[in-house]
Amino acid sequence: MAGFNIKRGPLGDTSLKRVSLFETASNLRRLLMSNITKDQVIEWLSAQPILELAALVKDLEGKWGVSAAAAVAAGPAAGAGAAAPAAEAQTEFTVILKDAGANKIGVIKEVRAITGLGLKEAKDLVEGAPKPVKENAPKAEAEDIKKKLEAAGAKVELK
After folding, report:
1. Whole-number average pLDDT of the chain
2. How far apart are CA 17 and CA 6, in angstroms?
3. Average pLDDT of 126-131?
4. Where are the beta strands (DSSP E) in the chain?
5. Which of 29, 47, 100, 115 is the most exposed place for a label (fewest CB within 10 A)?
């Protein structure tokens, strides 16, 4: 949505010029920025029609290169103590053995081959599921481990 401002042309004539809400907000900011408070901004926004506010949001997203949807999605994750920003892709995974399945001996053999553990340690890991088999593994390695364990009959999860 846009508002209208009266502009004086080069010959002194007045005419209506269609301006965006962003231009109007920019002009307002230049005039009042040193004296404006957060409460005044909230009051001003509360008085604006919803369609104009939607246009303002789009203008701000374009100017700042952000998305309100991404901020809303990242909000709960940030509140929960997420270590990495939402925009970053996960590069390291933890392979978790959820259940050994029916072929426990085959899974124990695979765990030994993957981790280098002894027979007793591997057996304890498998019987104590759910437990991590490998932590901080690159994606390709984690997926390979998952395939091997699933082929042996285990249920596996990547985190």
Report:
1. 77
2. 6
3. 87
4. 2-8, 14-20, 92-99, 131-138, 155-158
5. 47
